[in-house]
């Protein structure tokens, strides 16, 4: 039996809606959901070496003194240049003893298998004061940089000038306050970083999103974080993607509170991604 014109129209509309809904279902929002956050035995972190990190100190033009530790590439070749990873600590390690910033996350770079796999300089400054301030200490949503963060970035320049660093492969990562500073560092120095990985931080003003569209960014955050709520990172990732940034992704850990997921510490999955990133050559 022939279908009526109204029936055909209804079926066509239904098919169109199905197609539309199907398309919507496959849109990449840049969010990767991890349903069970892996856990790492604390004893593993406590066993990580720290003695191989040399000591240094830098005084910036703004008067801020930055103690720092640094790790050289294993078996470095004097004729080669190497990537540099800037690791930024949380508020719990603020100080001037040049030891507190060598937390478990920083020391993972000295694990023999990782140090061999990733030939790089690792630079770990210690902030004498906060590197990032928040709009609301109770429920932060926006972060802004401080003179201490500016001083640390000036310290990076001085370090690079004195060591065989590949200037196209400078990366930044950090947890909590250090995650917030990781968001802010490429805004303060858009010429410096090839990739960034903020962990459980607070993002900057969403108005700055267009300035981050070209930077490869991986954002890690637990959805049960009450200290630095994940909403800030969700909003910033959405803003960057809305502005045309396709190389930003948010890795959400279900049920994870304000801590680093166990698959991050010794993980090669994110390090492999990071070390693949390079800033364009000037002619590009």
UniProtKB/TrEMBL annotation:
Coiled coil: none annotated. Gene3D superfamilies: alpha/beta hydrolase. It comes from the Bacteria. Keywords: Signal. InterPro entries: AB_hydrolase_fold, Plant_Biomass_Hydrol_Est, PLipase/COase/thioEstase. Residues 154-262 form the Phospholipase/carboxylesterase/thioesterase domain. Residues 1-25 form the signal peptide. The keyword Translocase does not apply. PANTHER family: BLL1128 PROTEIN (PTHR43037:SF1), UNNAMED PRODUCT-RELATED (PTHR43037). This is Prolyl oligopeptidase family serine peptidase.
